[in-house]
Amino acid sequence: MLHLIGYALAVVIGFALGMVGGGGSILVIPVLVFFFKIDPTLATTYSLFIVGLSALCGSSTQWKEGNISFRAVAQFGIPSVMVLFIVRRWLLPAVPAVVFNGGGMVISKSLLVMVLFTTLMLAVGYTMVRQKKYTPGESVQRPRLILQGALTGAVTGFIGIGGGFIIVPSLVLFAGLPMRKAIGTSLVIISINCAVGILSNLTTTGSLNYPFLLRFAFLAAIGILLGTWFIGLIPDRNLKPVFGWIILGMSFFMIARLFLRY
User: Fold this and answer.
1) Which pLDDT belongs to residue 138?
2) Residue 249 DSSP label
3) What string of DSSP letters covers 173-196?
4) Which of 25-29, 75-79, 92-96, 205-209 has the highest mean pLDDT?
5) Which of 24, 166, 212, 235 has the fewest CB neighbours in a 10 Å radius?
């Protein structure tokens, strides 16, 4: 029964990714962990596959509609990819399986990933709910755009997320893109980030359940196509707060499960 709910949520995840150009991994990881019992550390790699394939599918639709800025992809995506590769290739493997063990408290690498992930979800959800819309900048702020790209790569590499919830507001604020173009551009950058994240950690790819990955990604791809279509029916100002509440709800669910599990 849990698996059926998890597969249904795959469509919801893709739908959300298609609507707001991000947030897919924020929902993918808890679904993989709590509905399919996948280890949180391994779930980050699964997430890169699922979100990357889904975002690639959504990118093709956005490209046909002219909603992709390839200049922003280069200026934001290159530093993001470089930092992501460093984190996934060298920094993340250097983190020990047991991060802390003392005073009767044991903090594993998996627990650390989930705690950091949940904290990030709370912060992002709160920001989305409060800041209902973004005002595009008048000109490209290249240094800040590069810095945001590097930050996104670091987050994507360590936690295993596509980073769209950082990419979209950054593209609007620092690259001067309108909301819909920022969403389309975000999907391209997410696809690149996920591909590099996978290639930088090839040692774990041989043990992945590819039939499951393809099933989940296929359902998410259906959702992203539906979300891309549906976004045209909703005013821009309503997109962020709605998804913000979804993220907050999922983060509270994760907190509850973490307390019950540990």
Assistant:
1) 45
2) H
3) HHS---HHHHHHHHHHHHHHHHHH
4) 75-79
5) 235
Query: Which of helix, strand or coil describes residue 214?
Result: helix
For 105, list phi and psi in degrees, rounded to 5: -115, 130
Q: How far apart are the first and last CA of the chain?
A: 24
Q: Scan for tokens 């020990």, then name that residue.
A: 96
Per residue, the 3-state secondary structure of 17-69, as one string, reads: HHHHCCCHHHHHHHHHHHHCCCCHHHHHHHHHHHHHHHHHHHHHHHHHCCCCC
* Helices 179-199/236-261 angle, 10° precision: 40
CA distance 186 to 28: 17
Write out the two tokens for 217. Answer: 């990604």
Total domains present in the chain: 1
pLDDT for 46-63, tens place per residue?
Answer: 888 888 888 888 888 888
User: Residue 204 pLDDT > 70, yes or no?
Assistant: no
Picking from 245, 247, 235, the residue whose alpha carbon sits closest to that of residue 133 is 235
Domain that holds residue 73: 2-261
Q: State the pTM of this model.
A: 0.74
Q: Name the amino acid, one letter, at 90.
A: W
Question: 92-98: long-range contacts at Cβ-Cβ below 8 A with a sequence spacing of 24 or more?
Answer: 92/157, 92/158, 92/201, 93/201
Mean pLDDT in the chain?
A: 79
